Amino acid sequence: MEITGKTKICGLIGDPVEHSMSPVMHNKAYKKLGLDYIYLPFRVAPEQLEAAVDGLRALNVCGFNVTIPHKVAVIPMLDGLDPIAEKIGAVNTVVNMDGELRGYNTDAAGFLRALLDSGTEPDGKNIVVLGAGGAARAVTYILAERDVNLTILNRREELDWAEAIAELINEDFGRPVRVLELLDECLAEALQEADILVNATSVGMSPHSEKSPVPAKLLKKDLVVFDVVYNPIDTRLLTEAKAAGARTISGIEMLIWQGALAFEKWTGREAPVGLMKKEALKMLESHED
Ligand code: NAP
User: Fold this and answer.
1) Which residue is closest in CA terms to ligand 1's atom 34?
2) 3.80.10.10, 3.40.50.10860, 3.30.470.20, 3.40.1010.10: which CATH number matches 8-104+253-288?
3) What confidence tens digit (pLDDT) does each residue in 153-189 have?
């Protein structure tokens, strides 16, 4: 596709951005649908974030994704927030609406789409979420909109983060959330009754792919295990869950859906999800070589 004066610009701000799969996913999707769009990565240091956001507004880009470490810091620089992004306190997608930058969290909706897409219905289920960072907050908040029983486990030093998420969910949905310490004995207790386990910590992410947040002996056949970590695709947790006979969902599915939902906000077109997945997998596999 040739770049012309009419080409619409989308992008990504983060630090680093070199390994992001988003530019390939989006640019291939634009090409497939014949859309006159381009998606560019911008490495932005934290001290340049405000200048970068003002610059993107001044350049009238169509929208942009936000990744580590800017998902929280970007919020005061935007002109408006989607209510769910506001509750989660993190933004990964920004849409330029006639000069006003509005922030969304498509990680949350992307997680839910990936879960439902795998044929897993969360309603009525006991769900255990590990972690209390940005991804965990997105996952628990979107799950709390459904009829679920939630347990969050986090490390002792940061248990108050988990308590804060639990309090928010209780206030907004009248749903009590159990908070436990991320210890093997608490995991064993929580997993006894669990239907779905979500790892929303970064444990197991490359280059520490030999790690798992859950001892293999606690994994069981009647569990659905969703690991938000997508690099590697088959984390140790997912490999051990499969070996125990559990159903598994990789973080790559969430990554694709968060991208697809951003694509739809910017272009107004249905995203070619299959193609975006194929391109992301191709790139991940080439990293793993
Ligand atoms: P974050 O805000 O930094 O949170 C990291 C979480 O991991 C915190 O809860 C932290 O616990 C926990 N953690 C880190 N090391 C740990 C350890 N050794 N033992 C126990 N807990 C540990 O990061 P994030 O943005 O939530 O991202 C978390 C993971 O999700 C990353 O791997 C990221 O790539 C992935 N992610 C995937 C997608 C997707 O589309 N698939 C989207 C967003 C994020 P403390 O609170 O105790 O520090």
Assistant:
1) 229
2) 3.40.50.10860
3) 999 777 789 999 999 999 999 999 999 999 999 999 9
